[in-house]
Structures are given as C-alpha cells and as structure tokens.
Amino acid sequence: MRDNLNRRILVIDDNRGIHADFRKILSPKSDGSYGDVSASLFGDTPEKSKFAGYEIDSAFQGKEGLEMMKQSVASGNPYSVAFVDVRMPPGWDGIETTARLWEVCPELQVVICTAFSDYSWDDMARRLGQNDGLLILKKPFDSVEVLQMAETLSKKWTLARQAKWRVADLNAMVSQRTRELRASNDQLAQEIADRCQTQILLSAFSTLGSLLSAAQTVKDAGQIIVDTADRLLGWDACLVELYSPDTNVLTHVLNADLIDGQRKECPPKRPSRSPSQLARKTLQEGAQLILKCDSPECRNEESPFGDATRPSASLMCVPIRNGKAVTGMISLQSFTPGAYNAQSLETLQALADHCGGALDRIRTESALRKTQEDLRQSQKLEAIGQLAGGIAHDFNNLLAVIRGNADLGRIDAVGFSSDVTGCLDQISAATERAANLTRQLLTFSRKQMMHSQPVDLDDVMMNLSKMLERIIGEDIALRCRHSSALPLVQADIGMLEQVLVNLVVNARDAMPSGGQLQITTEAVSFDAAPDSAHPEAKPGDCVCLTVKDSGAGISPEDMPHIFEPFFTTKEVGKGTGLGLATVYGIVKQHQGWIEVSSQVGTGTTFKIYLPALKSPRTASNDRRLTEDEPPRRGKETVLLVEDDEALRYVTHLLLERSGYRVLEAGSGPEALKIWESSAPEVDLLLTDVVMPAGITGRKLAEHLLEKKTSLKVIFQSGYGGEIMRDSTEFLRRTNSCFLQKPCAPHDLLRAVRRCLDGLPALREQFPGVAFEPSPVSYGTRLN
C-alpha cells in the first residue's frame, strides 16, 4: 500500500443514477475506451494505458458515508477520494458530511459535486475552512474531468501518505539519533564528572600524603583525615579510631560532631572500648553503608557522642587497612537521608586505605618518641635525684652541726636568760623544718629509708581526716569515701601520710576561693596488657587513692613538669617545688605509679596506684611507739669517725658530757691508726658511712670487727637509710645500728646506750633489719 496508488473511492449521493455514472467512468472497461481517453489525456498509446480501475463504494446519505469511512479507517484500508453531493435531503448536506469525514480521516481528498445554483465557494470556505484537500465539480460533469480528478487526487493522497510515512520514519530516525546523542552526551558528561572527581581525589590524596608525612601525632593525622573526608564527602559527625587485634580494642583518636552549627571535638568518656556490633562487622567484613529515610525514628548505630539526641540518617563505616592488616576504623554520619551512596563508600574506603600505612608509621614513631621522652625524663629525674641526694647529705651535716650546738646550749642553759633559751629553741625548730626539706629531697631521690609494713589506706585516710580539715580551712568541703574490704598494701605509713598531705595542700592552694575536695580509695585490677588510659599499669590487684579537687586546674604546658623538683607555679616564697616531686619519689619507692588528669578552670584529679598484698596480714598502723625515759650516762670508749670537723666536734662534746671517753678521727686511715694503739679500749664505733680517703664506714667496720668481734657499731649518714640497703645482711649479722643525720642528742645518746648494753635498738626497715629512729626518718620508731 505504501508503494501503490490508493484507488478506493467513496461516492456519497442520494441519486442512484449518479453512482452508475461514476462507475461507468471509473470502473474497469474491457472495450478499451479508457485507454483511448487516457491516451488522449496523457499522450500514451492505448496499448500502454492498462487501466487498473477504481474500487467504488456508494453511500446515499452523509451518515451512511461517515460509517463507511470509519470502517475503512479502522480496517487500515481508508478511502483516498470522496465525491460528495452538496444536497442530500433529508439528511446532512455535503458540507456537513465533508466536515464529519475529515474528523475521521483528515487526509481524505474531497470533491464537492454541485450545481450553479448551490453554495458559492466563499460559503463553503466559510463553513469548512481553507483546505487543500477540497475541489469543486460542477454538474453536469464531464467524464474526462471526473477521471482526471480521480487520478490526480488519488496520487495526491498516496503521495501525501507516503510523505507522512517518510516524515514519520525521519522523525523516528531523528528521535533515535537524538536519544543516542543524548546518551552519548550523558555518558560524556559522566566521564567528565568522573574525570573531575578523579582529579579531585588525586589532588586530595596528594595533599593528604604531604600533610600526613608532616603529622607528629595520631590525633594530628586523624584531624587531617576527617578534614579531607569533609572536603570529599561532607559529614555532620565523624569518628576515627585505631584497632588492636591482639586485645580486640578500639582506641579513640578523634570524635567530632556538628553542634550549634560548629564542628566540635567530643572526646569519649573512655579512651578505649570493645568494638560494637557494627564496628565488629566493619572490621571483619569490610565497608558498611547504612541509609535511613525515616530519620526522625532512627538512632546512631555507633556509640553516641556529642549531641546524641539527633539521629543519623546516613552512615558509612570503613576499616583502615595497612596491607591485609586492619588497623582502625573511620565512620562518617550525616543527618540528611540519602547523603551517601556506593560511590561515596568506595571513596571513603580509598581514603582509609591511603592513610593506613601513614597512621601505622605515625603510631610507631609516636610510641618511640614517648619511650625516648620517658627515658630522657627518667635520666633527668635520676640526675636530679643524685644531685638532690648529694645536697641533702651536705645539708644534713650542716643541720646536724647547727642542731647539735643548739641542743648542747639548751642542755647548758642553766643561768641563761629566757631570750637566749628562746633563741636556742627557735634554732632547733628551724633545723627541724630544714630537715623536713632535706627529707623530701631524699624521698624524691629514693634515698629515704622506709619502714615498710602492711597498711590499710582507709585507716591512713581516716586518721588524717581531722588534720586535713584544719589544713584546708572552712571554705573547702572535704568528702572522704572509702571502699569496703580494701586490700592492704606494703608501705611506710609516714610516707603515705606525706603523699596525702602534699596532695591536699596543693588542692587547697588551687582553690583560694573555696571548692570541693574528694578523697577516695578503691580496689582495682589490671590485665596483663596496659592500655593508653593506664600506660604504667602493672598486671594484678592494686589499691587506688584518688584526690580530686574543683580548683584552677593545671595548664597543658605545665603538666609535663609537675613532678620535677623545684618546679612550681606558685608565687615566690609560697612553694618549694618539692611537694609533687616528693609524692612521685614516695610512690615510685612503693612500686606504684601516678596518673593525673586536669582541665583548666574545672579541677585536677590525682590517682595513686599501689600494689595490693596477695596475702594480707593484719594492718599495723600505730606509729606512736616512743620511749620517753632519758638515756643513761656511760663511761665506755667510743671511736668517733666523722670527716666533717664541725659535726665531729659537737658529737664529741655531746658524748663526753654524757660520761663517755671519745677517740676521734677525720677519716678511715686515721681511725685505723688510732685503733692500732687503742683497740682494747674501744667499745663502740660511731662512724659516718661516706668518707674520703678510700675507706667507707662499712669497710672500716668490717676491718675492725675482724679484729674485735665484740665491737659495737653505729652508722650515721646524711643520705638516709637507702645508702645501707646493700648492707642488709651485714647489719643483721653484726646487729649494727643506723642513724640518719641530723639526729637529736637525746636520740643519739639513747642509741649509743642501748647498743652498748646489747639491747634491741632497731625497728625492721628491711627484712630482718631495723633502724634507730630520728625526727626526719619516716615511720621509724624504737622497740
């Protein structure tokens, strides 16, 4: 049908004769008359003009013709030409019929058959409108004219239909090509966008690499990572953690949340945690994407931080990997539904993988730097400790001279005015305070002797509570809270009391306008592996003493120096800088450690951890054993060996006034010379421990005891009892005694008398060995 002429013609006329005329003209003829007509019209020979004829259908009213037109259109075989009479009573006229035919088939070619007395052309144009598919055939009509119209209009209809099909084909081709071009454009746009995104990623990763190479801490690296993630993907909350597969613990690096329109860091309450269900799935299975459209009803999948009341509608979690090892986790959250997709997750995973090696390197380097810093700090403190011990030794010798002379003056104070005796009392009191300072130096340098015994920290705290209330004053509220069934610790009670007093005094000074002070004790246990929260922790059971204040806090720049001796932030004359150094030394002597947390303007918390006794014994916290009776006089001979001439003089004078005969020497070799001539007469060796000329007090005592086993020996030193720690067995075997300088005359004379009488003069300071007390020796007392 698309290549052949449409020869279907519909004739609508109420006159049956008209139908017969049309059939005679347009139907096939066997007599060749059509060929003659065609030859005359188109110049063909009758032989070439093979008339195919037209298919003529007749309708006698407009409605009938309309129905036939509808059927032909519905069957896909429409009419190409319709000859319509103008007047067809009693139904529609030709004008109305034509209008209705065009409604069904707009491309129909219509010939209106009319007489001279019918409608004018203007009337028909006004009713039907301008249409190039309309012709007028005047009655009576000529056969040739009818045939010419049929031929021309059929070809016109066919050509129009073919043109329509061609246009449709062209439109289809154009639409297809348009779709192809649009798809190509979309693909090109996507490729351009992908290329731009790739360039952005490459640029971001290149910048990221240089930034990470300069990062010094894991936290610095975490901040760089989340800033990069924000530029690439955006987030309302983020979390970066490091993972330890050995302990199955996630350690906090950085938590941040969008609060009041600003990104704020939100440190967790605990620096480490066990993986949650989502975190465990991420670490084991890989990246996780969670999208929630119903955001008002959802809650954070991870541990909440920051503003935990807001739900996250979009969540991505990816593992940080260094090769095949999973070393951490990154989580991004958005409060907007559908904020992330699979490509976002892929980008975040690429970012995490890009950072894995750098984070491991930074973590390793940070640990190395901390170890090196701890070593330097330890070496520095050790050097300072050695210096402090030396200063304390020399200072104690000076104090011994001052105190000895003052005490001798008080003994001979008969006839002195009250002003003179008062001055002597002030001198003695001043030497006592000075001795306390040297005692702190010795404690810091770990050269202070200890009286170690099972101690209940709760008893120590409660026994001191009244005194502590007087120390802090009425503006500070003190609350003491103890733990039930607290394990005992092996400790020196006096040293623990000093730790508590020093911390309370510092807390008081940090709260000049009053505040809250809380002291608590509790039992804690630690696993084999220390974590970042307790880096010095030792495995096993411990007792924790906590002193927490609401004071001014410690600034971050001061925190690394607080345990250094002589470091203080107080005004000149308000502090010695030895308080926390002494606390540090005492705790280390007790095999414990200290943890400090502080925030400027909020307060400071000190936690003292001491090892608990595995088999606790009954605590003995009574330090008040004393002997008040005056020492008895004697007449024995004492060999006094002291390199400090002034101290030797005052000690000589004290012993001589108590009835003893004194032989004195300024060094070990000098003492040996005296011994050679006076050995049978010497009953007691009173010697300094550290002396010049190559012979120490111990070497001298060993040599003389070999000559005379009945010789009694008392050692003295300004260094403290720790200097004799290596002599434990010697002290036990010889039943020798140790006194720390400066020593009150009463204590020195009593020790000499008891030693000569063979009475026990020592309280155990080391296993099986005891030491004579002095006013500056913590926890020592007489039997």
Describe the structure.
It contains 18 helices and 26 strands. With 783 residues, it is an alpha/beta fold. 35% of the residues are buried. Strands 6, 7, 8, 9, 10, 11 and 12 form a seven-stranded antiparallel β-sheet that branches. Strands 2-1-3-4-5 form a five-stranded parallel β-sheet, with helices on both faces. The longest helix is centred in the N-terminal third of the chain and has 72 residues, at 143-214. α6 (143-214) packs antiparallel against α7, α7 (218-232) runs antiparallel to α9 (342-411) and α12 packs antiparallel against α13 (579-589). A hairpin with a 4-residue loop joins β6 (237-244) and β7 (249-259).
Topology record:
Elements: E1 8-12, H1 16-26, H2 33-42, E2 55-59, H3 62-74, E3 81-85, H4 94-104, E4 109-114, H5 121-128, E5 134-138, H6 143-214, H7 218-232, E6 237-244, E7 249-259, E8 262-265, E9 272-273, H8 277-285, E10 288-291, E11 314-322, E12 325-334, H9 342-411, H10 418-444, E13 452-455, H11 457-472, E14 476-481, E15 489-492, H12 493-509, E16 515-526, E17 540-549, H13 579-589, E18 593-599, E19 603-611, E20 637-641, H14 645-657, E21 661-665, H15 668-678, E22 684-688, H16 697-707, E23 712-717, H17 728-734, E24 737-740, H18 745-757, E25 763-766, E26 769-771
Parallel strand pairs: 1-2, 1-3, 3-4, 4-5, 14-16, 20-21, 20-22, 22-23, 23-24
Antiparallel strand pairs: 6-7, 6-12, 7-8, 7-9, 10-11, 11-12, 13-15, 16-17, 17-19, 18-19, 25-26
Helix pairs in contact: 3-4, 6-7, 6-9, 7-9, 9-10, 9-14, 10-13, 11-12, 12-13
